[in-house]
Amino acid sequence: MIKILLCYLLITSAFADHHIPDDESPGTTPAAVLRVHHKRGNTLYRFDYEHNTEVVNRTDKRYTLGVRYRFFEHLKAGIYYSKRYGQRHDEDWILGPNPPKWIWIDTDSRGENFVGIELIPRMLVEFLPGTWIAEFRTLIERNFFNDNNTIKLRPGLTHIYMGKSGPLFNLFFQYEAYIPLNYGRETLYEQWLYLGALYHWSKIFKPGVFFTMYEKKWSSTDAFFMKKGEHFTNTEKGNMIGVSLNFTIP
Amino acid sequence: MRLAFILLILFFIFSNIASAGGKLIYAKGNVEVLSKKAKSKMFQKVKKGATLEIGDIVRTRKGALAILSLDGGSKLKLNPDSAVTIKNTQKNNEEVFLNKGSAFINVLKSKLTKDAKPKFNLRTKTVSMGVRGTSFFASYGKQQKKKVRKDVWMCVNEGLVEVQNVKSGQKVSVKAGEGIKVDKGDKISDPKPLAWTQKLNWNMDESKGDLDNKVSIEDAYSDPLDQDYD
């Protein structure tokens, strides 16, 4: 009886000891983006759908509706609403009931509402040959599911290669940093690096491809600390290869 | 009596020469003329072959196209929703005023000395374009704000065009393959190749193919800073 009890304690403690999530590196996963834009004067109306497969068994799906206005030649500002599924947060690392082990909640079917505002200053980089545009996009976003507020900073550089009758293709490079305002234990919660190209098939349709490298930090919550008496931070790193389909409705 | 008869003949000849303008050699859609001599002061629809006189205003409606052959030898293709006034059609001294829209101009080639004055002048409300060559395109652009003049665009297919701001006197010479923009009808930009002009339809000969120009002046306003790709 004692042996059985000792074996049981050994087994359950082995499971319970695995309370810190493993660093995950899912390799290179696929992504796809659909964008539909309509412009009227200085106002842009947009709809985006993004489909990203990150770690195994988690799909990030985002539906975004937004509007942007060009206030000055070099400045646009916008507001957007986004419904997202498959998001992961620090508090999704829980002790499951049966078997009692620490797991990440499956959030693929959990919808979360986001609202954000964005500021987009842009300028032509005239000392470079050809057409180069530098941009520093700043977004402030609120997740109404868990009241998380995030600042996203995204500097970027785009080269537009001009053909005989107008733009032929774009090459772009962007870096994006997520700074949590009221959650997490790290200053930089996520970092993304984008490299991509866009082909000007027509005024209405522009297909593109992109490669992304990302890094995310998952930190222990106060609830975890109360249970386990320790903090952790672990890292998820990955790459994505994606295609984008961009439509501009005249 | 004989003298009076001769004077009458001379008067007839000179009055015809003075008022002779040109001919409408192609018309598609609704092409109208406001004749300077007409009492009614209303635009009248005209057909191919109609005679034009100095002072006449030729207008095309939406979807229409007109090609004018001026007595001085030059040809002018008037795009849809455009209008010109024929000011002078003497050889080596032709002048047309662009009232509205856009037009292709093909000037008759002739031997010119180095200091020859332009033989064809296209005027707008703010600039005068003197042509020393063969063909160019001019168009009114957008009126960017109320109470501000419209932009004027011009590009040269062959030859040389000298553009002068009638108010400031600023002069710019534009070579073949280059174009300029007169911003709000005021400052003339430096000449440079304009991508949007590559697909302009310069053809004025019906027998050689399609005459319609499908390039819109809106294409000139494609602004890279305004494009959103994400």
Commentary on this structure:
The complex is a heterodimer of chains A (250) and B (230). Chain A is mostly beta strands and 250 residues long. Chain A has helices at 2-17, 222-228, and strands at 28-40, 43-53, 59-72, 75-85, 93-95, 102-104, 111-124, 131-143, 148-163, 166-180, 190-199, 205-219, 233-249. An eleven-stranded mixed beta barrel of chain A has the order 1-2-3-4-7-8-9-10-11-12-13. A two-stranded antiparallel ribbon of chain A has the order 5-6. In chain A, strand 7 and strand 8 form a beta hairpin. The longest helix of chain A is centred in the first third of the chain and has 16 residues, at 2-17. The N and C termini of chain A lie far apart (78 Å). The mean pLDDT of chain A is 89. Chain B has one helix spanning 2-19, and strands at 20-28, 31-34, 44-45, 51-53, 57-60, 65-70, 75-78, 83-90, 93-100, 102-106, 120-123, 127-131, 135-140, 152-158, 160-165, 171-175, 179-183, 187-188. Chain B is mainly beta. Chain B has a domain at 66-220: Sandwich (Jelly Rolls), CATH 2.60.120. In chain B, the strands form two sheets. In chain B, strands 4-1-6-7-10-13-14-17-18 form a nine-stranded antiparallel sheet. Chain B has a nine-stranded mixed sheet with strand order 3-2-5-8-9-11-12-15-16, with no helix packed on it. Chain B has one helix and 18 strands. In chain B, 33% of the residues are buried. Chains A and B meet through strand 1, strand 2, strand 7, strand 9 and strand 10 of A and loops of B.
